[in-house]
Amino acid sequence: MMDPEMPSWQKAAQAKRQAILDAIPQQWRIQHVSPPLDVTGEFIQGFLTSREIEITEADAVAITAQTTSGNWSAVEVTEAFCHRAAIAHQLVNCLHEIFFEDALRVAKELDEHLAATGKPKGPLHGLPVSLKDQFHVKGVDTTMGYVGWIGTYQGKKDDPRHRVAESELVRELRNLGAVLFCKTSVPVTLMAGETANHIIGYTWNPKNRNLSSGGSSGGEGALIALRGSPAGFGTDIGGSVRIPASFNGIFGLRPSAGRMPYEGAANSIDGQNTILSVIGPLATSIGALKLVFKAVLSQEPWQYDPLSLPLPWREDIENLTKRLFTDKKGAASQLSFGILRHDGLVEPQPSVKVAIDFMERILRDLGHQVIEWDTGLCREGKEIASKTYDMDGGADLLSHIALSGEAEIPQCSVEPGKHLNASEVAALNVQKREYQKKYMDYWNSTSKLTTTGRPVDAVICPTAPHAAVIPGKYRHTGYTTFVNTLDYTSLVFPICRADKHLRSMTQRSEFLSELDRKIYEEYDAEIYHGGPIGLQLIGRRLEEEKIFTIAEYLCEQVKLYTGQEDLANPSIDL
Amino acid sequence: MMDPEMPSWQKAAQAKRQAILDAIPQQWRIQHVSPPLDVTGEFIQGFLTSREIEITEADAVAITAQTTSGNWSAVEVTEAFCHRAAIAHQLVNCLHEIFFEDALRVAKELDEHLAATGKPKGPLHGLPVSLKDQFHVKGVDTTMGYVGWIGTYQGKKDDPRHRVAESELVRELRNLGAVLFCKTSVPVTLMAGETANHIIGYTWNPKNRNLSSGGSSGGEGALIALRGSPAGFGTDIGGSVRIPASFNGIFGLRPSAGRMPYEGAANSIDGQNTILSVIGPLATSIGALKLVFKAVLSQEPWQYDPLSLPLPWREDIENLTKRLFTDKKGAASQLSFGILRHDGLVEPQPSVKVAIDFMERILRDLGHQVIEWDTGLCREGKEIASKTYDMDGGADLLSHIALSGEAEIPQCSVEPGKHLNASEVAALNVQKREYQKKYMDYWNSTSKLTTTGRPVDAVICPTAPHAAVIPGKYRHTGYTTFVNTLDYTSLVFPICRADKHLRSMTQRSEFLSELDRKIYEEYDAEIYHGGPIGLQLIGRRLEEEKIFTIAEYLCEQVKLYTGQEDLANPSIDL
């Protein structure tokens, strides 16, 4: 029952929250359950049939092998994921929109299509795909976590596009045969590394429900980690794909701007083009990540999205990259990697240092070269990003919050600030370009340090200074935002989970900054225990093919070293 | 002698003007000459030896065939162009910087290199290349026409980069073996379709010295039309490569942003990134244009310029395009073209209508399909461009004019206006993207109208509503600016010259706008007689390979129809 004294925005949020739950079929509701901290694996499996477990724990590559050949029906696969997503939402609050009936109708049509023609609709035939709640899908809202957007088109009442328009990515996914079934939670404003809003509350980390699922694509991260979706799409303007990937032990790609079609999606501060938000996939395996990325490119998004570049998947670059680490006779060749141990502002907590050291040991063992990467270059990239996010003094974000008068959420607070003018925006664009040039020159200069004679092939670096963060403690985005300023490509892969038993780090007494000290002091081995950690593999602008290829190779090696079958289910013990 | 009462900015401009003339060797000065209206061809040839004429009237393809094989020495070629450029400047005021001695030193080194190694330095070995005065070349100023920039680095006194730094394009051209020898005139502010500043005065049209050479790359246009340079590079944010190409009867390309490296070049309103200024080549033949464009791409500018895209010359697209108009058996296939007869705001003057009609006849005769292009879509593109140019209320341009206190030049006047804030800039970026999407959808929709089943292959349209314009009468940039807003690729090729004898157009009594009436009334068959006219061949974003390939084909056809050997020397009679 609603409290009559409750402010109207709270009533609206509560009604929407209830509507999401009401969209879950009765037989999939869970009640009187006391979930453990870790609700992945056995716990969530307890709600499912063995067949559902088999389907939902396959990755997108394995699933599409079955669905495109007709071995598994799209309906059965869709139903299994709908069921698991419904449970996931009830455990960690990861969904904004549920449209299982539509999904099952589409799946049925796909099954009929395959039966009638003998051919799959496309490479994603029958694959359920989840979407961050920025993409418009017909029949449902896009709230982006704003209470004032409920029942509107991006805050506009009575707009004919409401529940009718679809984003370009949605159109392409439908063409490819994907089955859309839910939209996932985001922090209000999108500008946060945790996911919280008045509609769904807080999206918890499935591996440790005391921790955050990250943000802003936190719903994607949590849902996919729980295997409630085999693959999905988020967006990243400061780490919003990479942080949830890292915090949930899954894979995520932040491609350079212009590869994935943003056309027709809702956004924060739309039109700000100093640093563009980009769409990136998240998935449970590197193969799945590549499958959906390549599938979207096959739709030639540049024919439909004015900001997309005419760059199909470049197989020549993929092949050239493979030859870098495999010589003509099939023997291993040397690659060279930069390792960024800290960003000059904040050192990573012990659990993340262990992950970096472990990765370095693998690279060295394999005979690759490791170069200490310049820690002095991140700061300016982060500063430019901060100025960019704040260029309108918070006007856009505050206007959407004001629509409903909803209360501030600490992690997503917006400070009204200085509103830049066009000259100041232009000066910021110049600063960004000069920063990109400086970084480019530095990267080029490493050809003098490598034994290959090439500049380093990629850079390894933390995604955040900590494992999946304690709520309210995400204080430093320096490890991800400089990549956005550079518009570099960055792929996050899972490597381990925080382990309270690891040898404690040497006591530190010197710090890079006050923030560094604070984050150091906030390390709590007990609370962080089990929080996933992923690392970034960073390539230069528009080097997605190269980075995918190197990542595939590295992930195979990490599996061999850790003895893990499934990297997206990392063990705590390295 | 200088007038002691003269304002200091006039003295500085006069001293610089004299310094440019002083850089011309004594034996190349011309005096007591009364040049005719048309100083091209026989008139300028009168100052040259037959050998110099042979060299300078070859196009860049023919020249590099001789210089890369050592048949012609780089020194001899360079000297011939220096001589002709010196004469050109004295006839039409097209140069800002002259550095013939440096050029001859470089040419000598190239000759030595070829003698020592047997190999050319690069594909442009020994080719003189001129540059618009936005590119920094060591040893000389970059004034961009601002009196306040004389003796400074972009207006900054005592900046260590002055006369030391070189733009990225300059570095690449040197790598390619090009010989840089002069920088060409621009209108102060760059934001004008005519070329005038207090340093060199007015850059006249070589074909008719009562008319304008266009702008803002007007010096390039005039110099190349006089064969004082075989090829050069300008920039285009609203037509600044295409207008001078059209007005001087030569070839010019406005590629999409990201293909040619702008890094390290001076610019107006640097950092404004709603519509990016782009670098484009100008040359005396389509082959020459392609040669220098491809040569720059071979330097992989994306490794050195953060705004360049990793798009090498795509031979696969070139070959696919060729196959569009030549089927497997070598027979002609049909292409389809949109023809934009007017931009919805201003109809072209009769001379330009004749050029469009002539081009249409050729296309139809060849069996290609011609589709009437939507005249309603240009207006918004032009409006967005205008808002973009003015987004800082003129602050940047006025600040550079204020450095010296120089007087206003009517064609380059800057009205202080509203300074947009970051939200308004973002809204403009959204408007631009939506406009691009609308245009994209329209272009895609033409697949329903063509017999090929493809959307139209390219669009033919005027470059301006008139031939090379009467000074002070460039009132409407609508034919070029919408292309910048769209970021489409556009290649201008010469087709004819205004002919006072042509049947006068049916008397018009209805007009699209007041401006339309004004420009109609300003048509003066007598004054415009002989003014060159070029047409735009427009492709979509980043379709340079396709547009080059279609343009090569069309230019061959135009030659056949007109009986002209050299399109860049168009006859008046069609």
TrEMBL record, chains A, B:
Its EC number is 3.5.1.4. Residues 76-547 form the Amidase domain. Gene3D superfamilies: Amidase signature (AS) domain (3.90.1300.10). Belongs to the amidase family. Substrate binds at residues 190, 216, 237-240. The active site is at 132 (charge relay system), 216 (charge relay system), 240 (acyl-ester intermediate). It catalyses: a monocarboxylic acid amide + H2O = a monocarboxylate + NH4(+). It comes from the Eukaryota. One of its GO terms (molecular function) is amidase activity. This is amidase. The keyword Protease does not apply. PROSITE patterns: AMIDASES (PS00571). InterPro entries: Amidase_CS (IPR020556), Amidase_dom (IPR023631), AS_sf (IPR036928). It is an enzyme of class 3 (hydrolase).
